[in-house]
Every structure is written in C-alpha cells, then in structure tokens.
Amino acid sequence: MASKGPRSKLDHETRTRRQKAVEVSKEPCRPKAHWDHVLEEMIWLSKDFESERKWKLVQAKKVSIRASKSILDQATKGEKKMKVLYKHQLELEEKKKKALDKQLDFLLGQTER
C-alpha cells in the first residue's frame, strides 16, 4: 500500500486503453450549412440588441440629466433677470434723485438771491 501507482504492468496497459477509448475522436471539418449561418446571425443579432439596449439606456440618462439641468438653468435665468432689473431700477432711481437734488439746489440758490 506504500505506492499509489499502477500495481502491475497489465493494470497500466488497461488504463491506457481505457483512456484512449474515452478520448473524443476529432470530427473532420464539415462545410457550413444554411442552419449554421442562421445560428451565427442569431448570436450576432442578440449581441447587437444587447449593446443597443445598453447604449439607449446611457443616452436616456444623458438626455434626462440635460433636461433637468436646462429646467434649473431656466429657473436661475429668471432669478438673474429679476436681479438685473432690480439693479437697473436702483441705478435709475439714483440718477433721478441726483437730478432732483440738483434742481432743488438750483431753485434754492435762486430764492436766496
């Protein structure tokens, strides 16, 4: 029981014969039939559909992100317009106030004479 190898020459020969019998014989190459081409195209088409599905999901995510950004941009544009209008109104009021102050000073100067 010390050795784990074949016990006899006969045992070794029968093992090699069994292994040779078990080995699959190689078939010769056969020409492709119509069905082989159909199967190849089905495999290609399934991969194509899968890749197109992934691509469309990516594109849909990009479009949704752009749409949400544009909505946010429109809201911020409205706020910016309001701020700009407010600043313009302040500047206009300041100019009017300066003009009225100047006119008041002129009138006061004439009445003092």
Automatic annotation (TrEMBL):
Which residue ranges does the record annotate as region Disordered? 1-27
Record-level GO BP terms: chromatin remodeling
List localization entries.
Nucleus
| An annotated Gene Ontology molecular function | ATP hydrolysis activity
**UniProt-listed InterPro entries:** HSA_dom, INO80/SWR1_helicase
Query: What SMART domains would the database entry show?
Result: HSA
Q: What is its main location?
A: nucleus
List GO terms (cellular component aspect): Swr1 complex
Per UniProt, the ranges with Basic and acidic residues bias are 8-27
Q: Which PANTHER family match?
A: HELICASE SRCAP, HELICASE SRCAP-RELATED
For this entry, the protein name equals: HSA domain-containing protein
